[in-house]
Amino acid sequence: MKKITNLTNFLFEQHTHSKKSTELGNIISQIVLATKIVSREINRAGLVDILGKTDKINIQKEEVQKLDELANTTFTELLRQSPHVAAVGSEEVDNIVVFTDKIHHTAEYIVHIDPLDGSSNIDVNVSVGTNFVIFKRKSKSGKLQKSDYLQAGKNAICAGYIVYGSSTMLVFSSGKGVHGFTLDPSIGEFLLSHENIHYPAITTIYSVNESYEPKWNDAIKHIVSEYKTSKNHSGKPLSARYIGSLVADFHRNLLKGGIFLYPADNKNPNGKLRLLYEGIPFAFLTQQAGGYSSNGRLDVLEIQPRELHQRIPFFVGTKNEVKHLEKLLC
Ligand code: AHM
Ligand code: MG
């Protein structure tokens, strides 16, 4: 019989019942509970009044969708219930949300989260996701410092994403490989379904929003044109696949072998995707899965964030293909 394990037991076993596994396990349980609620709401979104926009604009100057708001409130409030979470940085909120209740006095962890990624796909029944990364604060106690929540990805202790697709799947790493858990709705549990995920050796897919080509620089134009020929690093033309939900594009490329590109262009000189809760979670998982991520010059895990909503050009996928791209861009 196939081994049946849920996420918290798995984490507990991986970290040999240590203090870290108890604390992380508690935070992950809160994320799991929020995920089940958000997944339920997404599944019945067409039936109740939660599709469409609110009348708000977020810090990114984007219109806030009702599901964005619901996901943000659900994740933030459930993380607030964990005594180990000191603060949450969310795509939907201008500033870091610091928890100051009594239960958080000894809290040591910071969670950065994009509660609902792929907003443009919400209303059309296409996969969306949630991405998160967890850091441990650097200062031991007292007021939370910028240096506690603006940490480079190489310091992360755990990262993951949830893809709300034909099934709901949570993929995570706490530094000991990348593992996928699928929600079994009949029992309401995430069960281990993909143990030790690794990028395949061969790249078969490239993912980029090619409608922006007129705004790219010549190097990016050249690299993307190579993907359609045998001149790329893989030596064979690649297939194009682009969903427009980073989680779903990343998940497919991780399982099938692909490279995802969101370059800077002359409209977005720093790219579109945000370093802390979009770049770093996928960079961390990618490193654990044997891949590589770059902003075109540097390993994303080496970049020191200067601000909460900082944007970066983002290239992520199989190691050889991303390294090849980096060489052509430098
Ligand atoms: P969001 O966080 O507002 O949903 O934006 C991020 C999304 C990513 O999921 C996706 O990779 C990208 O934006 C798609 O952008 P574009 O529509 O410009 O291709
Ligand atoms: Mg996003």
What is the strand arrangement across the widest sheet?
Answer: 4-3-5-6-7-8-9-10
Q: Count the strands? A: 17
Q: Which CATH architecture of the largest domain would you pick?
A: 2-Layer Sandwich
Q: How many domain units?
A: 2
What is the CATH topology assignment of the largest domain?
Answer: Fructose-1,6-Bisphosphatase, Chain A, domain 1
Give the C-alpha Rg.
19 Å
Number of helices: 8
Poorly predicted segments: none
The biggest sheet, with number of strands, parallel, antiparallel or mixed sense and barrel status, is:
8 strands, mixed
Sheet-strand content, in percent, reads 15-25%
In CATH, what is the class of the largest domain?
Alpha Beta
Q: Work out the oligomeric state of the chains in this entry.
A: single chain
| Element string (H = helix, E = strand) | HHEEHEEEEHEEEEEHEHEEHEEEH
Shape: globular
Report on this model:
The protein has 330 residues and is an alpha+beta fold. The chain has two domains: 7-194, Fructose-1,6-Bisphosphatase, Chain A, domain 1; 205-329, D-Maltodextrin-Binding Protein, domain 2 (3-Layer(aba) Sandwich). It contains eight helices and 17 strands. It has helices at 7-14, 19-43, 66-80, 146-149, 218-227, 246-256, 275-288, 319-329; strands at residues 53-57, 63-65, 85-90, 97-98, 109-117, 128-136, 158-164, 168-173, 179-184, 189-194, 205-207, 239-240, 258-262, 273-274, 291-294, 311-312, 314-318. The strands form four sheets. The chain has an eight-stranded mixed sheet, sandwiched between helices. A five-stranded mixed sheet has the order 12-11-13-17-15, with helices on both faces. A two-stranded antiparallel ribbon has the order 1-2. Helix 2 (19-43) runs antiparallel to helix 3. The radius of gyration is 19 Å and the shape is globular. The termini are far apart. The relative contact order is 0.13. The structure holds 2,5-anhydro-1,6-di-O-phosphono-D-mannitol and magnesium ion. The site of magnesium ion has 4 residues, from strand 5.
